[in-house]
């Protein structure tokens, strides 16, 4: 059994799955989250509850940040009771948030200056794959970081792509993935909206598309939320306001045109402004006028 102490900061849909996967792999997993009830639940499953990133860092030489964005990453690492001040020299930070590549590069430099290792390691695959230890990781960083992270990465992911020894490459690949994910969700919503407008049975349309060439992973995964009228946020509209914003910011820096990404971003912006920002990202379909969306079905349907 591997008794290495590993810390996980953020027990959301992905972070909780990662923490549980590492427990199953034999690690002694410390965890903290702003929601004490979630941390306590994880402790009841065999994990170690920590009340702050700093207290976790004092006990672990590898910590994994599974938060939403660069701002939260900054807070849990460098803010009040942040992890960095308590980490021993040579400790490793594995950053899983979707952030701008420039942020990942700067973060790597800052941690290096403090005698710490960093692995730029965004993740993909959804909550189910995180829970099964089968998610995809897009990683980049120096050899020393990989040497320290190797067993941990194998315990939390099914596919670990090593994209180079320079911080930021992992984040570049992740935002390109998010470009496709956001465009596919927006296109899926547009297709379903047209079907509803034209009087096509929504369930039949979903069945046909998922068995035809127009299918995508996002269509197959997100459209059931629309069919069930269940907009519980597994990934919220505002996540794609952020992520497609990162895509466009990156392209703007090199004056590279992204017409489809720009349109999809505007669709998510419109949905957020209309009050759907905290709903599931499939709620982008609510921006289309003149359609009647499927209603929630009774439990015995």
From TrEMBL:
UniProt keyword annotations, A-Z: Carbohydrate metabolism, NAD, NADP, Oxidoreductase
Superkingdom field: Bacteria
Keyword Heme applies: no
InterPro entries in alphabetical order: 6-PGluconate_DH-like_C_sf (IPR008927), 6PGD_dom2 (IPR013328), 6PGDH_NADP-bd (IPR006115), HIBADH-like_NADP-bd (IPR029154), HIBADH-related (IPR015815), LtnD (IPR050006), NAD(P)-bd_dom_sf (IPR036291)
An annotated Gene Ontology molecular function: oxidoreductase activity, acting on the CH-OH group of donors, NAD or NADP as acceptor
Protein EC: 1.1.1.411
Domain 3-hydroxyisobutyrate dehydrogenase-like NAD-binding: 168-287
Enzyme class (EC, first level): oxidoreductase
Record field: catalytic activity: L-threonate + NAD(+) = 2-dehydro-L-erythronate + NADH + H(+)
Domain (6-phosphogluconate dehydrogenase NADP-binding): residue spans on this chain: 5-164
Active-site annotation: 174
SUPFAM superfamilies to which the protein is assigned, alphabetical: 6-phosphogluconate dehydrogenase C-terminal domain-like, NAD(P)-binding Rossmann-fold domains
UniProt record similarity statement: Belongs to the HIBADH-related family. L-threonate dehydrogenase subfamily.
Annotated function: Catalyzes oxidation of L-threonate to 2-oxo-tetronate. Can use either NAD(+) or NADP(+) as cosubstrate, with a preference for NAD(+).
Name under which the protein is recorded: L-threonate dehydrogenase
Organism annotation: Pseudomonas abietaniphila
Classification lineage: Bacteria, Pseudomonadati, Pseudomonadota, Gammaproteobacteria, Pseudomonadales
